[in-house]
Amino acid sequence: MQQLIAYIHSLTTFSDDNWQHLLPALSVQYFHKDDYLLKAGEVCNALYFICRGYCRAYYDKDGVDINTDFFFEQDIATNINSYGRREKSAFAIQACESLEVVRFDRELLLSAAARDPQIETLGRLCLQRIAARQEKHTALFKLMSAQERYEYLEQTYPEMLQRVSLSQLSSFLGVARETLSRIRSRRQS
Prior knowledge:
Layout: H1 2-11, H2 16-22, E1 26-31, E2 36-38, E3 46-52, E4 55-61, E5 64-71, E6 76-77, H3 80-85, E7 92-95, E8 99-105, H4 106-115, H5 117-143, H6 146-156, H7 158-163, H8 166-173, H9 177-188
Helix pairs in contact: 4-5, 6-9, 8-9
Domain Cyclic nucleotide-binding: 10-107
Protein name: Crp/Fnr family transcriptional regulator
Pfam families: cNMP_binding (PF00027)
Protein backbone atom coordinates (compact mmCIF):
# COMPACT_ATOMS: atom_id res chain seq x y z
CA MET A 1 0.00 0.00 0.00
CA GLN A 2 2.99 2.31 0.44
CA GLN A 3 3.29 2.65 -3.36
CA LEU A 4 -0.36 3.63 -3.57
CA ILE A 5 -0.02 6.16 -0.76
CA ALA A 6 2.96 7.76 -2.56
CA TYR A 7 0.97 7.80 -5.81
CA ILE A 8 -2.00 9.48 -4.12
CA HIS A 9 0.26 12.09 -2.53
CA SER A 10 1.76 12.83 -5.96
CA LEU A 11 -1.75 13.82 -7.11
CA THR A 12 -3.29 15.61 -4.14
CA THR A 13 -3.08 16.24 -0.42
CA PHE A 14 -4.55 13.35 1.50
CA SER A 15 -4.97 13.12 5.28
CA ASP A 16 -5.16 10.09 7.54
CA ASP A 17 -8.93 10.67 7.76
CA ASN A 18 -9.20 10.65 3.94
CA TRP A 19 -7.22 7.40 3.90
CA GLN A 20 -9.53 5.81 6.49
CA HIS A 21 -12.55 6.73 4.34
CA LEU A 22 -10.90 5.28 1.22
CA LEU A 23 -9.62 2.06 2.80
CA PRO A 24 -12.92 0.08 2.63
CA ALA A 25 -12.91 0.49 -1.18
CA LEU A 26 -9.43 -1.05 -1.49
CA SER A 27 -8.26 -4.64 -1.61
CA VAL A 28 -4.94 -6.18 -2.58
CA GLN A 29 -5.26 -8.84 -5.28
CA TYR A 30 -2.82 -11.15 -6.99
CA PHE A 31 -3.06 -12.50 -10.52
CA HIS A 32 -1.00 -15.17 -12.23
CA LYS A 33 0.37 -14.67 -15.72
CA ASP A 34 -2.50 -14.93 -18.25
CA ASP A 35 -5.22 -14.32 -15.61
CA TYR A 36 -7.84 -11.73 -16.54
CA LEU A 37 -8.49 -8.57 -14.56
CA LEU A 38 -11.31 -7.84 -17.02
CA LYS A 39 -12.74 -10.00 -19.80
CA ALA A 40 -14.23 -8.61 -22.98
CA GLY A 41 -18.01 -8.52 -22.57
CA GLU A 42 -17.89 -7.84 -18.82
CA VAL A 43 -18.69 -4.50 -17.18
CA CYS A 44 -15.63 -2.98 -15.52
CA ASN A 45 -16.24 -2.58 -11.78
CA ALA A 46 -12.80 -1.51 -10.63
CA LEU A 47 -9.65 0.51 -11.07
CA TYR A 48 -6.45 -1.50 -10.63
CA PHE A 49 -3.34 0.23 -9.29
CA ILE A 50 -0.34 -1.86 -10.38
CA CYS A 51 2.11 -2.54 -7.54
CA ARG A 52 4.17 -5.30 -9.16
CA GLY A 53 4.18 -6.83 -12.64
CA TYR A 54 2.40 -5.63 -15.76
CA CYS A 55 -0.72 -6.32 -17.77
CA ARG A 56 -2.05 -5.56 -21.22
CA ALA A 57 -5.28 -4.32 -22.73
CA TYR A 58 -6.20 -6.04 -25.98
CA TYR A 59 -8.97 -6.66 -28.46
CA ASP A 60 -9.60 -10.01 -30.11
CA LYS A 61 -10.10 -9.28 -33.80
CA ASP A 62 -10.99 -12.42 -35.72
CA GLY A 63 -8.83 -14.56 -33.42
CA VAL A 64 -5.86 -12.16 -33.46
CA ASP A 65 -4.87 -10.22 -30.34
CA ILE A 66 -4.52 -6.47 -30.97
CA ASN A 67 -2.66 -4.94 -28.00
CA THR A 68 -3.75 -1.39 -27.26
CA ASP A 69 -1.97 -0.64 -24.00
CA PHE A 70 0.37 -1.96 -21.33
CA PHE A 71 0.17 -1.03 -17.65
CA PHE A 72 3.26 -1.21 -15.46
CA GLU A 73 4.06 -0.40 -11.84
CA GLN A 74 2.47 2.88 -10.70
CA ASP A 75 -0.14 2.77 -13.51
CA ILE A 76 -3.88 2.37 -13.16
CA ALA A 77 -5.45 -0.24 -15.43
CA THR A 78 -9.14 -0.01 -16.27
CA ASN A 79 -11.61 0.39 -19.09
CA ILE A 80 -12.69 3.97 -18.49
CA ASN A 81 -15.76 3.80 -20.75
CA SER A 82 -17.06 0.58 -19.23
CA TYR A 83 -16.27 1.81 -15.72
CA GLY A 84 -18.01 5.16 -16.19
CA ARG A 85 -20.92 4.26 -18.45
CA ARG A 86 -21.58 0.74 -17.11
CA GLU A 87 -21.21 -0.69 -20.63
CA LYS A 88 -19.74 -4.06 -21.48
CA SER A 89 -16.03 -3.86 -22.19
CA ALA A 90 -14.98 -4.29 -25.80
CA PHE A 91 -11.48 -5.34 -24.71
CA ALA A 92 -9.81 -7.51 -22.09
CA ILE A 93 -7.13 -6.71 -19.53
CA GLN A 94 -4.79 -9.64 -18.89
CA ALA A 95 -1.78 -10.19 -16.62
CA CYS A 96 1.47 -10.64 -18.56
CA GLU A 97 3.53 -11.43 -15.44
CA SER A 98 2.60 -12.31 -11.89
CA LEU A 99 0.69 -9.25 -10.85
CA GLU A 100 0.01 -7.52 -7.54
CA VAL A 101 -2.61 -4.79 -7.64
CA VAL A 102 -4.65 -2.64 -5.32
CA ARG A 103 -8.23 -2.92 -6.52
CA PHE A 104 -10.51 0.11 -6.14
CA ASP A 105 -14.06 -1.26 -5.99
CA ARG A 106 -16.30 1.09 -8.02
CA GLU A 107 -19.38 1.09 -5.77
CA LEU A 108 -17.41 1.42 -2.53
CA LEU A 109 -15.28 4.14 -4.10
CA LEU A 110 -18.37 6.10 -5.18
CA SER A 111 -19.80 5.75 -1.68
CA ALA A 112 -16.55 7.00 -0.11
CA ALA A 113 -16.39 9.90 -2.58
CA ALA A 114 -19.94 10.93 -1.67
CA ARG A 115 -18.87 11.24 1.98
CA ASP A 116 -15.39 12.73 1.44
CA PRO A 117 -14.78 15.48 -1.15
CA GLN A 118 -11.04 14.77 -1.14
CA ILE A 119 -11.70 11.23 -2.37
CA GLU A 120 -13.89 12.67 -5.12
CA THR A 121 -10.99 14.97 -6.04
CA LEU A 122 -8.60 12.00 -6.06
CA GLY A 123 -10.94 10.06 -8.35
CA ARG A 124 -11.23 12.97 -10.75
CA LEU A 125 -7.43 13.40 -10.86
CA CYS A 126 -6.91 9.68 -11.50
CA LEU A 127 -9.43 9.73 -14.34
CA GLN A 128 -7.78 12.83 -15.82
CA ARG A 129 -4.42 11.05 -15.77
CA ILE A 130 -5.96 8.01 -17.48
CA ALA A 131 -7.61 10.22 -20.14
CA ALA A 132 -4.35 12.12 -20.77
CA ARG A 133 -2.52 8.82 -21.25
CA GLN A 134 -5.15 7.66 -23.76
CA GLU A 135 -4.94 10.96 -25.62
CA LYS A 136 -1.15 10.67 -25.83
CA HIS A 137 -1.49 7.14 -27.17
CA THR A 138 -3.98 8.28 -29.83
CA ALA A 139 -1.63 11.06 -30.95
CA LEU A 140 1.21 8.57 -31.15
CA PHE A 141 -0.64 6.65 -33.84
CA LYS A 142 -2.01 9.61 -35.74
CA LEU A 143 1.16 11.67 -35.91
CA MET A 144 4.10 9.25 -35.95
CA SER A 145 5.45 6.60 -38.26
CA ALA A 146 6.16 3.10 -36.91
CA GLN A 147 9.85 3.97 -36.50
CA GLU A 148 9.00 7.21 -34.68
CA ARG A 149 6.61 5.33 -32.38
CA TYR A 150 9.36 2.85 -31.54
CA GLU A 151 11.83 5.69 -30.87
CA TYR A 152 9.26 7.37 -28.64
CA LEU A 153 8.92 4.15 -26.62
CA GLU A 154 12.71 3.89 -26.36
CA GLN A 155 12.88 7.37 -24.86
CA THR A 156 9.68 7.42 -22.80
CA TYR A 157 8.94 3.80 -21.82
CA PRO A 158 12.20 1.83 -22.04
CA GLU A 159 10.85 -0.77 -19.58
CA MET A 160 8.21 -1.65 -22.15
CA LEU A 161 10.88 -2.61 -24.68
CA GLN A 162 12.65 -4.74 -22.06
CA ARG A 163 9.62 -6.59 -20.71
CA VAL A 164 7.07 -6.92 -23.52
CA SER A 165 7.47 -9.72 -26.06
CA LEU A 166 8.30 -8.81 -29.65
CA SER A 167 4.97 -10.13 -30.96
CA GLN A 168 2.95 -8.16 -28.37
CA LEU A 169 5.02 -5.05 -28.99
CA SER A 170 4.57 -5.29 -32.77
CA SER A 171 0.81 -5.58 -32.28
CA PHE A 172 0.86 -2.52 -29.99
CA LEU A 173 2.85 -0.50 -32.54
CA GLY A 174 0.57 -1.60 -35.36
CA VAL A 175 3.29 -3.26 -37.46
CA ALA A 176 4.20 -6.79 -38.49
CA ARG A 177 6.72 -8.56 -36.28
CA GLU A 178 9.22 -8.60 -39.16
CA THR A 179 8.88 -4.83 -39.58
CA LEU A 180 9.56 -4.32 -35.89
CA SER A 181 12.62 -6.58 -36.11
CA ARG A 182 13.97 -4.41 -38.97
CA ILE A 183 13.30 -1.21 -37.01
CA ARG A 184 15.09 -2.63 -33.96
CA SER A 185 18.10 -3.81 -35.97
CA ARG A 186 18.44 -0.39 -37.66
CA ARG A 187 18.28 1.31 -34.23
CA GLN A 188 20.96 -1.00 -32.80
CA SER A 189 23.43 -0.49 -35.66
